[in-house]
Design a protein that fits this description.
CATH architecture of the largest domain: Alpha-Beta Barrel
Strand content: 15-25%
Structural class: alpha/beta
Shape: globular
CATH superfamily of the largest domain: Glycoside hydrolase, family 3, N-terminal domain
Number of domains: 2
Distance between the termini: 67 Å
Radius of gyration: 24 Å
Oligomer: single chain
Strand order of the largest sheet: 1-2-3-6-7-9-12-13
Largest sheet: 8 strands, parallel, barrel
């Protein structure tokens, strides 16, 4: 094998095996318009995919030009993104369709409407040249203390989750975008977040929520993502991502999945703290994963993972047959999605894209040079699906006595999760768009002085309606304290829950079941009487 002079790290392996090893990697990177040289070299050696984040997004035209540039380097490169809807998405700047999160869709329980929302998201991805979506979430929300799944799940009933998975997967597939059900064999039974620490699901085998993953596989999902969760009933020693008995014995042999199994991001602390990213890559591939994600933009971390895999192959610690099998699955996935989406792409941009061919962000129609191999085709989607679903999901535990014009809003919510995007949305902004006389404050994260927040709110709300919104107050006690203090002084206040509602929220709560912009706008409409 011949390496370029500027990329000589790693042992000398046969070129086909070196390419196979690179196929098994998905890399994050920094930049919106240019591709780092290190990433170019990885792509040249066979890199299987890249994952985009908010850091790579400025607007729709820029994203399309970036994906075209990437595939001009290698037409079979998979371009992926987390795109669950609700508050979980990285394409706000590119005019992403506004759809509620999965829990709200489960509350409505209309699979046809779920399919319309998934179609809007997938249509938007297709218009941008993004070929793989790390969604939908197949986890079942089982524990009220679970800090990471919650409204990202369709619900707490495996059958409900299953029917919405089927609708989502079918709609995404119809757009020529690869979907990915996550996080196998489930993250909903944990009480910790694997982004931050080790996570364990202590339930026995027959209590695990495998049914949604079986449903996703039956629906033809081309990818699954593994969970960095230890399941003692399946493997007491290793998280699922690194477990041959879970990935091989359960998923491949018992359940029969033969699509691409991709790991959750290796820099998550459940892997990184105990094993390190590089060892995690080697162990995950040895256990049965086909691709491992290194989502951080520092490409030195991706190189370290790559080198660990190459050295393990050279030393015989990682089977060449295992890596070739994984790479074969990735190649088939790329042929089915990346190559088809990239048909007509030429250096410098897609065929047929002119200065005015990409519509304004949020228009619902983005003209592109090549989508699904049809040069110059326009991609459109139903811009009303998300707002329709969000409105239908809003629940009033008691009817509002009347609209609340001129309300003062105190919107309490936790700091955004560092691994997930937050577009800056809040309830006050959405209500003011309908009622300019509304006032208030958005409190993101525990304030230095709860008393000061309460005192200021009560003064501002004197003689006018008060709206108090909380988001998963049971997980964030500071919200409960502020809520209780405000309600003690103003028992007439309207209480809103933008997360999973709890008994402590009270009988009169207005529930949105999510904090996506569509969810918050639907609540604002209820408050404004629109």
């Amino acid at each position: 094998m011949t390496h370029t002079a500027h990329d000589t790290v790693g042992p000398c392996l046969p070129s086909a095996l070196d390419e196979a090893a690179h196929r098994c990697l998905v890399a994050g990177f920094e930049g919106t318009t240019t591709v780092p040289d290190t990433l170019k070299r990885l792509i040249d050696r066979g890199l299987g995919g890249v994952i985009l984040f908010t850091r790579n997004v400025r607007d729709a035209r820029q994203v399309r030009e970036l994906t075209d540039t990437l595939r001009a380097l290698r037409p079979d490169l998979l371009v992926a993104i987390d795109n669950e809807g609700g508050g979980i998405g990285h394409l706000v700047g590119a005019g992403a369709p506004e759809v509620p999160g999965s829990w709200a869709l489960g509350v409505v329980d209309d699979p046809a409407l779920t399919a319309r929302c998934a179609d809007a998201l997938a249509g938007h991805l297709a218009s941008l040249g993004i070929t793989a979506s790390y969604a939908p979430v197949a986890d079942v929300q089982q524990r009220p203390e679970n800090p990471i799944v919650r409204t990202r799940s369709f619900g707490a009933d495996p059958e409900l989750v299953s029917r919405h998975l089927r609708a989502w997967i079918a709609a995404t597939e119809a757009r020529g975008v690869a979907s990915c059900a996550k996080h196998f064999p489930g993250h909903g039974g944990t009480v910790t977040d694997s982004h931050h620490e080790a996570a364990v699901d202590p339930r026995p085998y027959d209590a695990l929520d495998l049914a949604p993953f079986r449903a996703a596989i039956d629906a033809g999902v081309p990818m699954l993502m593994s969970a960095h969760v230890v399941f003692p009933a399946l493997d007491p020693d290793r998280p699922a991502t690194l477990s041959p008995s879970i990935l091989g014995g359960l998923l491949r042999d018992e359940i029969g999945f033969d699509g691409v199994l991709v790991s959750d991001a290796l820099e998550m602390r459940a892997i990184a703290d105990r094993y390190g990213e590089a060892a995690g890559a080697r162990l995950a591939l040895g256990a049965g994963a086909d691709q491992v994600i290194v989502a951080v933009p520092e490409l030195a971390t991706t190189l370290a993972c790559r080198d660990a895999v190459l050295h393990a192959l050279y030393a015989g610690e990682l089977s060449a047959e295992r890596v070739e099998e994984a790479a074969g699955r990735v190649r088939r996935l790329a042929e089915r999605y990346a190559v088809r989406a990239g048909a007509g792409v030429v250096a410098g941009g897609p065929a047929g894209v002119g200065a005015s061919s990409v519509g304004a962000a949020g228009s619902g129609v983005l003209g592109v040079g090549s989508v699904g191999g049809e040069s110059g085709a326009a991609v459109s989607w139903d811009v009303s699906a998300g707002s329709t679903a969000a409105r239908r999901a809003v629940r009033l535990r008691e009817p509002l006595p009347e609209a609340v014009p001129g309300a003062h809003v105190v919107d309490l919510f936790p700091l955004p999760h560092p691994a997930l995007n937050w577009g800056g949305e809040d309830l006050l902004t959405e209500l003011r768009a309908l009622d300019p006389t509304a006032t208030g404050t958005a409190v993101a994260g525990e304030p230095e002085s709860a008393e000061a927040v309460v005192d200021a709110a009560l003064r501002a709300a004197d003689g006018r309606p008060l709206v108090v919104a909380v988001c998963d107050a049971g997980l964030h006690p500071w919200q409960g304290r502020l809520r209780d203090a405000l309600l003690a002084a103003r028992p007439d206040a309207v209480l809103v829950s933008t997360g999973l509602p709890e008994a402590a929220d009270g009988a009169g709560v207005v529930c949105s079941y999510g904090r996506g912009r569509a969810n918050l706008r639907a609540v604002a409409e209820a408050l404004a009487g629109v």
